[in-house]
Design a protein that fits this description.
Elements (H helix, E strand, L loop, with lengths): L7 H6 L52 H12 L9 H10 L1 E5 L4 E3 L7 E7 L2 E6 L6 E7 L4 E2 L2 H5 L6 E4 L3 E7 H25 L8 H10 L1 E5 L4 E3 L7 E7 L2 E5 L7 E6 L4 E2 L1 H6 L6 E4 L3 E7 H8 L3 H7 L5
Bound molecules: adenosine-3',5'-cyclic-monophosphate.
């Protein structure tokens, strides 16, 4: 059985980030024209001496009906950033969120402004647009939809808003304040994004994606470890997971017409497998076996379709689509 450590052993050994520590926003988000200034004038980590400690966290409670709470929980379970919270943390976040409704054509976030909240979308769509300084033109960099969060960068990296966000339909949104986000979600999200940033950039399949898209993949990734000679996938079984090999080596073996399984492929770090069953809805077409102790990053079917769906042609063309 895989050891689904979901990053814990790596994270526990690292020191906890302080809420007020400024994590650097990845350079590649500071575009276009490099106009982004990192760090908010209004917050200073150094301002908190022993005599001036930040206040302990006090849960924010925004009253809401049971129906609203149910709708909100359902929305958060669709969001990669929030769906993995434990029940206690989920209750705190649900308690603190505020419902916001708007019509199409409303600017909810303005590039360059300070930001103290993020939104998770229950219903509707919005466009994130970055202003090209030299021409003044606004370029759409992402369309966000139900289950997506936006406005998280200003909170994760304590920097001004990196984009404008405009509604393109009637929307139902849930707004979360900075203090609750910092206390419950931020440290884990920053660590996950930083941990995977360099590796995902080195994965040939993903290096054409923009840095923001890759950071969103980090939110959805899980880690599994396997001992040498264990089977990661079994030929003939149904498949619901996509794998990227992070560390170690693996082989694929395949049996034709009930004959002995023969090796048909070798995998090294950065290679991926498990895509075929997700693209074709057919059972696994080969076994994949760890040839050394190894670690893989996994995406479930929903995350694979949502995040790597646009790369389907590339995925089909860059391997023989084995498993
Ligand atoms: P934030 O900078 O707080 O406010 C604008 C939001 O737009 C940002 O957080 C992200 O949630 C979202 N966004 C979507 N795509 C991008 C992108 N390519 N670069 C920066 N922000 C983006």
């Amino acid at each position: 059985m895989p050891d689904k450590d979901e990053d814990k052993d790596d994270e526990e050994s690292e020191e906890d980030n302080d809420d007020d520590e400024l994590d650097e926003m990845p350079e590649s988000f500071k575009k276009p024209d490099g106009q982004m200034k990192v760090g908010r004038a209004s917050v200073s980590a150094e301002a908190f001496g022993a005599w001036n400690k930040p206040k302990p966290f006090e849960p924010v409670i925004v009253p809401k009906s049971d129906v609203q709470k149910e709708r909100l929980k359902e929305t958060l379970l669709k969001s990669f950033m929030f769906s993995q919270l434990d029940t206690n943390d989920m209750d705190i976040v649900v308690g603190a969120m505020k419902e916001v409704q708007c019509e199409a054509g409303v600017r909810l976030i303005t590039q360059g402004e300070d930001g103290d909240f993020l939104f998770v979308i229950e219903d509707g769509t919005l466009e994130c647009k970055i202003k090209v300084q030299s021409t003044g033109e606004e370029k759409v960099v992402k369309t966000v939809e139900p289950g997506d969060a936006f406005g998280e960068l200003a909170l994760l990296y304590n920097c001004p808003r990196a984009a404008n966000v405009d509604s393109t339909s009637k929307c139902v949104l849930w707004q979360l304040d900075r203090a609750t986000f910092n206390h419950i979600v931020r440290d884990a999200a920053v660590k996950r994004r930083e941990r995977y940033e360099a590796f995902l950039q080195s994965v040939p399949l993903l290096n054409q994606m923009d840095a923001y898209e890759r950071s969103q993949i980090s939110d959805a990734l899980k880690t599994e470890k396997y001992d040498k000679d264990t089977y990661i996938l079994n030929q003939g079984e149904p498949g619901n997971t996509f794998y990227i090999l992070e560390e170690g080596n693996a082989i694929a073996t395949k049996s034709v017409d009930g004959g002995d399984a023969e090796m048909v492929m070798e995998y090294k770090p950065g290679d991926f497998f498990g895509e075929r069953a997700l693209l074709t809805d057919e059972p696994r077409a080969a076994n994949v076996i760890a040839s050394t102790p190894l670690r893989v990053l996994t995406l479930d079917r929903r995350s694979f379709k949502k995040m790597l769906g646009p790369l389907e042609e590339q995925i089909r063309s860059c391997t023989p689509c084995l498993v």
